[in-house]
Design goal:
Layout (H helix, E strand, L loop, with lengths): L11 E4 L10 H16 L3 E4 L8 H16 L14 H12 L2 H22 L4 E5 L21 H6 L5 H7 L3 E8 L5 E8 L4 H14 L10
Length: about 220
C-alpha cells in the first residue's frame, strides 16, 4: 500500500503512559516510553497528553459489554449447565440479564461525549500512543493478572487492557505493534490510535514505526 511507504515527518504525536486512569506496570511503561522515541527520530513532535475523558470502564461494562455478551449467549440456560460452563461465564450471563435498559442508555450518552471529546482533542494532533496492555503476558489458566485477584469481575476483565476505549467506546482506528520485551523475555505491545476514520494514517504510522524499530527477527525465549 502506497500510504504505508510515506513518512510521518512533522506529525504531532501524543504519548500517554496510562490514558489518565489505568494502572500500568512500571516495566511496561518504561519499555513503551522508550519506543515512543522512534517517532522523535522520524521527525515527529512528541508530547505527553491524553484525551480529557473520565474512566470509561463502568459505562462500557454495564451498558455495552455485559448486555451485549448476555444477548449473544441468551440461548444458554445457565441453570442446566452447572459444572460444564465456567462460573465466570454464568455470572456474566446473569448480570447482563439483570441490567436495566437505563444502563445502556447512559453508556450511549457517555460514548457520544467521549467521541466529542476525542475529536476535539485530536484537532491539532495526528496520533495517540499508549501501551496496549498494562501488564506483561501472564500464565495460562489465570483469569486475570495477580494484582486484580479479589477485584470485581469487570476489573478482572478490563483492568489490564487499554484497547477497549478505542475499539468499543470511541470506535476509532487503532493498531498494536511489538515494541520490546520484558526482563523475562515476554513481548510488549505499543498501541497506536489515529484520528477518526484515518485508517490510512494509522497504517502509515505503524509501518514507519516498524521500519524504525524492526522486530520480525526476534523470537520469544522458549
Amino acid at each position: 500500500m502506497a500510504e504505508a511507504r510515506k513518512d510521518v515527518r512533522g506529525w504531532r504525536v501524543a504519548w500517554s503512559p496510562d490514558l489518565g486512569f489505568a494502572r500500568v506496570d512500571p516495566e511496561i511503561r518504561r519499555i513503551c516510553a522508550a519506543a515512543v522515541g522512534a517517532f522523535e527520530e522520524l521527525g515527529c513532535v512528541v508530547e505527553e497528553s491524553c484525551p480529557p475523558w473520565s474512566d470509561p470502564e463502568v459505562a462500557m461494562w454495564e451498558g455495552i459489554w455485559v448486555p451485549g455478551f448476555a444477548a449473544a449467549n441468551d440461548f444458554l440456560d445457565s441453570t442446566g449447565y452447572e459444572g460444564q460452563i465456567d462460573a465466570e461465564l454464568v455470572a456474566l450471563l446473569r448480570e447482563g440479564a439483570a441490567l436495566p435498559l437505563l444502563a445502556t442508555s447512559r453508556a450511549e450518552v457517555f460514548r457520544a461525549r467521549m467521541w466529542d471529546a476525542l475529536v476535539e482533542w485530536f484537532g491539532p494532533r495526528d496520533l495517540l500512543i499508549c501501551p496496549t496492555l498494562c501488564v506483561e503476558p501472564f500464565e495460562v489458566g489465570r483469569f486475570a493478572p495477580a494484582f486484580l485477584d479479589g477485584e470485581p469481575l469487570r476489573r478482572r476483565i478490563l483492568g489490564w487492557v487499554l484497547t477497549y476505549p478505542f475499539n468499543m467506546m470511541a470506535s476509532v482506528p487503532a493498531a498494536t505493534v511489538p515494541c520490546g520485551v520484558t526482563a523475562a523475555g515476554l513481548p510488549v505491545g505499543l498501541q497506536l490510535v489515529a484520528r477518526p476514520r484515518d485508517d490510512a494514517g494509522l497504517l502509515r504510522a505503524a509501518a514507519s514505526f516498524e521500519r524504525a524499530r524492526p522486530w520480525s527477527d526476534r523470537r520469544p525465549v522458549a
